[in-house]
Amino acid sequence: MIKFKTFLLLLILMQLFPPTSVALADTGPKPTMEFEFTQELASEQVTITSGVLYECDQPDCSDASPLEELGPQGFYCELQSCSAMGYGFAPYHRIEIEFSDGVTRQSNIFETAGFDSKYTVTVRPEDLLVQAQFNLAIFPRLGMAEILITCVCALVGMGLLAGLILFLRRRSAKN
Description:
The protein is an alpha+beta fold. It has 2 domains: 32-132, Immunoglobulin-like (Sandwich), CATH 2.60.40; 142-175. Helices cover 26% and strands 31% of the residues. The chain contains 2 helices and 10 strands; from the N terminus they run αββββββββββα. It has a 5-stranded mixed sheet, with no helix packed on it. A hairpin with a 4-residue loop joins strand 9 and strand 10. The chain is flat, with a radius of gyration of 28 Å.
């Protein structure tokens, strides 16, 4: 009974002194988009002033809405590039970029090209042409645990295959 009372007293005292550090949680890797800009006309070099990424569920982008800025999610532009991070992206997109020449150009409609999408954006006099770049990072980034599990499964699979081959060779030798 004395141990129970001591334990109960310790629990009550622990409630009076909460931890001073805050615990933060993350939902893991998030999909990203990287936009690299090239100028169609070398004579007219413009820089990016601001930009908006529109997300669409319809292929014609009739339901376009800007990507919301929520925590790390958002669309960010620098002088010659833009990037986006999201908790998830719609299947179709369109970007609208304002340039240093005062012209706001809108892109063609393009699809999400993977988990870490990379695009080349050609700046033309009246609009933007977005084309997906081929990259091997189509799949989400793998952590050490996934790599270790894959290696162990591969080793077990090779061991089973080697054992099956030995079994079949010995069995055929007896006959």
